[in-house]
Write a structure and sequence with these properties.
With 443 residues, the protein is an all-alpha fold. It has 22 helices and no strands.
Length: 443
């Protein structure tokens, strides 16, 4: 039986619109009520489930036909692969933290970075922690209290200290091979993590280097704070380095993350941090930490399949095509779509999942390398997530300062996110850069 041709239909897009409306609307309403972390009170899967119900009601066909379409999306190989990687990444992050890896990394950085380079030091430590653990929020939680204490003693403007932490955290969130955003971006585009990482690094490295220079110039303390020597075990940092190196070499991500969990477990056993039972419990805790994004990925995968079949994705593509005249505008369009979505839902991983299939189809039509589209999905979503004042990262970070710094003071100092956007646009505008970078990947 020949499949019917998919025709563009705005009606097909309604479930996605309902999802964003519920997710964003709830956040705005709760924020007006003064609820803390308002945009994170309604779990994403609940909003997605409500949107799916709307799809079942308004789309044509029998319940059985719509259910089969939904299950086809939920069980798509890319969705299931992404979900399993989420579980392994969660297990690695929790096990490594439980055996003291995060604490050792923070103490290592604080001990060896000179006090008069405290702002740039916080940026670098934050970048390493977030790259190693795959979470910007985790890096902010680990570094935030330390940064506030150092800022109070040093005389460096607190807003600049917090901006350095935020920039470092978003650097790793964007680049880490075990970050939710990297997993979502590469799997929706069907590319290898190491390739996306290398393209991403060509754009992020200049932004990070310039940020470091600016922090060195403007982040010198009036009084060098006294930093007590912190005890740490270098061995406990090794699992992070191992996972990063193995992933970049190109070892299968399932093998890398499983080996990382086992290495952290062995170190934990050696130092008495684990028993066999507690090791298993920490692995499961890592799994459960990923429950929300796991369920959300499956539900949005099913919803995306329904929306695609009803012509919703095609409608977006045709609408965007009216503004596209070639590769440059396609790349900018992908960045704009995912950036605006992140502003709406305040979650960069969700923004990538929503726009993944759209970005892939646009890229294939206008011959944009899918490795680049994966990089732009991740970059632009992380730029927005690291700037919006109602994002979890900003809210948690400002909370450590006890309202001593406002978002309006902090945002102009987010040099890394601003420079990342500038270098992304430069990369897009000058095709020669793209051609040279892609050639290095193909060697």
């Amino acid at each position: 039986m020949k499949e019917r041709e998919i025709r563009a239909s705005f009606k097909g897009l309604i479930p996605f619109i309902v999802f964003i409306f519920i997710y964003l609307g709830t956040g705005i309403f709760l924020n007006m009520k003064g609820v803390n972390l308002a945009f994170y009170q309604l779990p994403g899967p609940v909003a997605a489930f409500a949107a799916i119900i709307i799809g079942f009601i308004i789309f044509k066909g029998t319940i059985q036909e719509k259910f089969e379409t939904f299950l086809e999306g939920c069980g798509h190989q890319d969705i299931i692969t992404m979900c399993v990687i989420y579980l392994l990444a969660g297990a690695f992050a929790v096990v490594s933290k439980a055996m003291g890896g995060v604490e050792a990394t923070v103490n290592l950085g604080i001990t060896y970075i000179p006090p008069h380079f405290i702002a740039v030091g916080l940026f670098i430590i934050g970048a390493f922690i977030s790259t190693a653990t795959g979470t910007s929020v985790g890096a902010i939680v680990a570094l935030g209290p330390i940064a506030v204490g150092l800022g109070e003693k040093s005389g460096v403007p607190m807003a600049l200290i917090l901006a350095a932490v935020m920039g470092g955290a978003m650097f790793g969130d964007n680049l880490s091979v075990i970050s939710d955003t990297t997993i979502a971006a590469t799997k929706t585009q069907g590319v290898e993590m190491k390739d996306k990482f290398r393209i991403n690094l060509y754009i992020a490295a200049p932004a990070a280097i310039l940020t470091i220079i600016l922090l060195v110039i403007f982040g010198r303390p009036e009084v060098a704070p006294e930093v007590a020597v912190q005890s740490f075990d270098l061995v406990k940092v090794l699992p992070y380095i191992f996972v990063l190196v193995m992933a970049l070499i190109g070892v299968n991500v399932f093998v890398v993350l499983t080996a990382g969990v086992l290495l952290s477990g062995v170190i934990g056993f050696a130092y008495g941090d684990f028993t066999l039972l507690s090791f298993g419990q920490e692995i499961y805790n890592g799994f459960t930490n990923m429950t929300e994004i796991f369920i959300l990925s499956m539900l949005t995968g099913g919803m995306a399949q329904m929306v695609t079949k009803e012509g919703g994705i095609q409608w977006v593509i045709e609408a965007v095509q009216k503004m596209i005249i070639g590769k440059k505008s396609t790349k900018l369009g992908i960045g704009l779509l995912v950036g605006l979505t992140d502003i709406a839902v305040a979650n960069n991983t969700v923004a990538i999942i929503i726009n993944g299939s759209i970005a892939k189809q646009l890229s294939e039509k206008y011959e944009v390398d899918l490795r680049e589209s994966a990089a732009f999905l991740d970059i632009f979503s992380c730029i927005m997530q690291g700037i919006i004042p109602y994002g979890a990262q900003m809210l948690i970070l400002l909370g450590f300062a006890k309202d001593a710094v406002s978002p309006t003071e902090l945002i102009p100092l987010l040099w890394y996110q601003i420079l990342l956007g500038v270098f992304s646009v430069i990369y897009i505008i000058f095709p020669a850069i793209s051609e040279k970078v892609l050639k290095t990947l193909d060697k």
